[in-house]
Design brief:
CATH superfamily of one domain: P-loop containing nucleotide triphosphate hydrolases
Number of strands: 12
Helix content: 25-40%
Strand order of the largest sheet: 6-7-8-3-9-10-12-11
CATH topology of one domain: Rossmann fold
Number of helices: 11
CATH architecture of one domain: 3-Layer(aba) Sandwich
Shape: globular
Distance between the termini: 37 Å
CATH class of one domain: Alpha Beta
Order of helices and strands: EEEHEEHEHHHHEHEHEEHHHEE
Largest sheet: 8 strands, mixed
Length: 333
């Protein structure tokens, strides 16, 4: 666990290094920026959260780790996942990365698992592609289903996706993601489509398996309570940029960026210690729509003239790295 976020993970422990990543679609004057100077790191055995409103760039950043960029886009910076330089890699290398060294759990398993193939076929595909004999792969599939809490794995491998509830199918996807024992696990809003009780079960399961396998996990979510509860470190994104990086507990105890504070005030707390919920004025922005200077300035209660002209650089503030001109809450209200 990284306890002081301005101390970067050692290179030999990092399973994901994203440094200065910028992404745009199109060329020349028609280029539409999507991400700007994004830096995210994940160590072995560490759970790192990536939080923010819709359009902030969370999923784009997670998918970048696997080289899954929008068609017609151009990326600059550094992305190293499972030891592979993703931006320089060819199709064959990326396929091997996704097959063996990194895996993603998507938000909606029904949109990601082929509905006309049996669960066993879905689970054994990656293992057999790596050369595992069919019999051994089938046995491993049943073992994985048991680990994720699926009753009667021998029967389950013969069933089809429509025979499973959403929560059970998400467990199947987790089993599939762990089938090749990847060094890096990317979880993109894995509990959003589930009811609250099932969410808790899936998160507990995912965290336990991640710890047991020593896997580094990037957990994408809009839920700050969830991120603070399970993540060692948390990155807060706004309009395609990193606004703040903090230890999970410090994010609650001493949020440094006005956006982080606004998110906390706008979120109902599972602990029941927030007396009032305050909506953030205005609408969330994508990078292409953001104002000059600080992207959050038109929604920020403390922005001033410098916020309108200069993009804030990330700097240490307490236990955080924060991209804000006034992390102390100064400025002109």
């Amino acid at each position: 666990m990284t306890t002081l976020t301005n101390e970067r993970p050692a290179p030999d422990r990092a399973v994901l290094t994203v440094a200065g990543l910028s992404l745009a679609v199109g060329t020349g004057e028609r280029a539409v920026p999507l991400l700007a100077d994004v830096t995210v790191t994940v160590e072995r055995g560490e759970t790192v959260g990536l939080v923010g409103e819709s359009g902030s760039g969370k999923s784009l950043t997670a998918r970048a780790a696997l080289g899954m960029f929008p068609r017609g886009s151009r990326a600059t910076g550094t992305v190293v996942a499972g030891g592979l330089d993703v931006l320089a890699a060819g199709r064959r290398e990326l396929r091997e990365l996704r097959r063996a060294r990194a895996a993603m759990i998507f938000q909606d398993p029904r949109a990601s698992i082929n509905p006309v193939r049996r669960i066993g076929d879905y689970l054994t595909e990656g293992m057999r592609a790596r050369g595992m004999p069919a019999k051994a792969a089938a046995a491993r599939a049943q073992e994985l289903l048991g680990q994720v809490g699926i009753q009667n794995p021998r029967r389950a491998v013969r069933q089809y996706p429509h025979e499973f509830s959403g929560g059970m199918l998400q467990r199947v996807m987790i089993a599939g993601a762990l089938s090749t024992e990847p060094a890096l696990l990317l979880a993109d809003e894995p509990t959003t489509a589930l009811d609250v009780t099932t969410q808790a079960e899936v998160v507990t399961l995912l965290k336990g398996l991640q710890r047991a396998h020593g896997t580094g996990m990037l957990f994408v979510t809009h839920d700050l309570d969830l991120a603070a509860a399970i993540c060692d470190r948390v990155y807060v994104m706004y309009a395609g940029r990193i606004a703040e990086e903090s230890a999970g507990t410090a994010l609650f105890e001493a949020p440094a960026h006005p956006y982080t504070r606004a998110l906390l005030e706008a979120s109902p707390s599972v602990h029941g210690d927030r007396a009032a919920i305050r909506a953030i004025k205005g609408s969330p922005k994508e990078l292409a729509q953001a104002p000059a200077g600080c992207s959050f300035r038109d929604r920020c209660p403390i922005s001033d003239d410098v916020c309108a002209t200069e993009v804030p650089a990330a700097r240490p503030h307490g236990m955080s790295l924060v991209a804000c001109h006034h992390p102390e809450g100064g400025g002109t209200p």
